[in-house]
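WARN retry 2 of 3 for item q-0093 after timeout on previous attempt; input resubmitted unchanged.
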Amino acid sequence: MTRFIAILLFVFSYTNCSEIAVIRKNFHEIDSKEQLYEFIDFTEKNYCLEVEPYLASAIMMKAQYVFFPHTKMKYFKNGKKRLETFITENPDNLEAKYMRLLIQSEIPSFLNYNDNIESDFNQINQDIQGSTLPEVYKNVIITNINKINP
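OK item q-0093 returned
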């Protein structure tokens, strides 16, 4: 019986995405260390599988607010690993590809994390209209990726 309850709690924690619209909105409004840390805290408290790309990207963003290069790389690599693992397990997830596209288009090229810009850009453009994302968020994605020149 205890095992059943544990499984039920695990499944519920990955399906309770009632705050996904807030997470999507707040991600795009991050412009300070305080907002970033508040976003991470909120996202971790409202965790579901759909927020993993946002959380992974936010972890990578922590690198811009620390001084020591070793710490910067630690945050970057941790977030990158989480995002790439998610994409490997969910290869058709447009939000994950969108997050990766945003990150890869903004980070310095010496980090060698820019291999997917063109393919993510193309896949998002091709699949966005047929996705189940809310129309308002589809427009946000289209607006943001059109600012990127792959």
